[in-house]
Specification:
The protein is built from 17 helices and twelve strands. With 384 residues, it is an alpha/beta fold. The chain binds nicotinamide-adenine-dinucleotide and D-Mannitol-1-phosphate (44H). Pfam families: Mannitol_dh, Mannitol_dh_C.
Length: 384
């Protein structure tokens, strides 16, 4: 099996690339970070340190690496069996042109083998969005061929992988938690489902995507934002603060009640899922900065993402939402000089006012009373 993984970052090396390598795939990482590409291409191996329960060190061997905007990448796409990505939601549109050129080359070479592309990003049906970008970059007369031969497979991916510490002997090494879950949509594959241990398939993916994004990521983001406000540096310190934990658990429960209504999850099992996630946030062996988890607040405050979509769900089913509102107000309070989206948010709050910014960023044009509640909580937070 020939595999290309776009994005040799934390989740790329620490989870998806590792599973592909374990499945004996001929694995090439494609990235824009040239020093990272050079080091991976030269060294061809790295270590995954699994910390927590059943701690162990696992070796990933025989990988190669190329620049993702290269002729090499196009040539390899033409021959690949599976392509995965973990580049960040905002980067999918940027890799689409290379993917399109690779598919055109594949078509020209007469390769009719089925190929599957799986985006492993924290977003709802990211691969379907990638597909639209790829099709836009291809001549319409090839769209039918793509539909016939290329599976665009949505997935949900869960494993907490913070960046390695600067003190690491080898910058390629990654530290990951024990828990991992990668679930793919079985209905979207072309050809046989690839045999990759650790990749589970379901025909009910939406339930799993929303369960993960609107429980773990909702709670994670709120931990980060409230954590920063309270002066905590890491997710562990923040979640061990009882006042923060109450709001985080409350928000995950509010979001969970929506998921239970929407997908029929068992309430007892869902409560256990939330407890397990809180324990994962506490992992003493992971150093996860609130700034990593809070990154790109405008994305996290957008209408389909982990804060606003659950809030909309509570309105739909007439359920409580006060903890989610606290989390949203905390997200608006997030400040980071290293994060262009945090900078843009500050500019918009200052130039356009809080009410207008919340309305636009969160897509809440039809909910002025709800916007007013968020603004009140936000203003109260600024006075503390
Ligand atoms: N780290 C986690 O805990 C985790 C868990 C689940 C899902 N995710 C998701 O995985 C994705 C990546 O997150 P991460 O934490 O690994 O980030 P990261 O920053 O560690 O890795 C992203 C990698 O993508 C590369 N990249 C950027 N632009 C590119 C391009 N045009 N072509 C190829 N590579 C490019 C970067 O150089 C970087 O190496 C995100 O969507 C994130 O939400 C992360
Ligand atoms: O990657 P983001 O920015 O969408 O979210 C930050 C974290 O919540 C996220 O990376 C988690 O660590 C991950 O989703 C765990 O599976």
């Amino acid at each position: 099996m020939k595999a290309i993984h776009f994005g040799a970052g934390n989740i790329g090396r620490g989870f998806i690339g590792k599973l592909l390598a374990d499945a004996q795939a001929e694995l090439t990482f494609a990235d824009v970070n040239q020093p990272l590409v050079d080091q991976l291409a030269h060294q061809q191996h790295y270590q995954v340190n699994v910390v927590g329960e059943n701690a162990r060190v696992e070796q990933v061997n025989r990988v190669s690496a190329i620049h993702s905007n290269s002729q090499d990448a196009i040539r390899q796409i033409a021959e690949a069996d599976i392509i995965t990505t973990a580049v960040g939601p905002q980067v999918l549109s940027k890799i689409a042109s290379t993917l399109a050129q690779g598919l055109i080359a594949r078509h020209q070479s007469g390769n009719q083998q089925p190929m599957n592309i799986i985006a492993c990003e924290n977003m709802v049906r990211g691969t379907s969005q990638l597909k639209q970008h790829v099709l836009l970059a291809m001549p319409t007369e090839l769209h039918g061929w793509v539909e016939e031969h290329v599976g665009f497979v949505d997935s949900a991916v869960d494993r907490i992988v913070p960046p390695g510490s600067a003190a690491n002997d080898d910058p390629l090494d990654v530290t990951v938690e024990t828990f991992s879950e990668w679930i793919v949509d079985s209905t979207q594959f072309k050809g046989q489902l690839p045999d990759i241990a650790g990749m589970e398939s379901t025909s009910n993916l939406m339930a799993y995507i929303e369960r993960k994004l609107f429980t773990l990521n909702t709670g994670h983001a709120i931990t980060a934002y409230l954590g920063q406000l309270a002066g905590h540096k890491t997710i562990r310190d923040a979640i061990l603060d009882p006042a923060i934990r109450d709001v985080v658990k409350g928000a995950m429960t509010e979001s969970g009640d929506v998921l239970i209504k929407r997908y029929g999850f068992d309430p007892v099992q869902h409560a256990a899922y939330i407890e397990k996630i809180l324990t994962r946030f506490e992992n003493p062996y992971l150093h996860d900065d609130v700034e990593r988890v809070g990154r790109q607040p405008l994305r996290k405050l957008s209408e389909g993402d982990r804060l606003i979509k659950p809030l909309r769900g509570t309105l739909e089913y007439g359920l409580p939402y006060s903890n989610l509102v606290m989390g949203i107000a905390a997200a608006l309070s997030y400040r980071s000089s290293n994060d262009p989206q945090a900078q843009e948010m500050v500019d918009r709050l200052r130039d356009n006012g809080v009410t207008h910014t919340v309305t636009q960023v969160c897509g809440l044009q039809d909910e002025p009373a709800l916007v007013a509640q968020i603004v009140n909580v936000y203003n109260a937070m600024q006075r503390k």
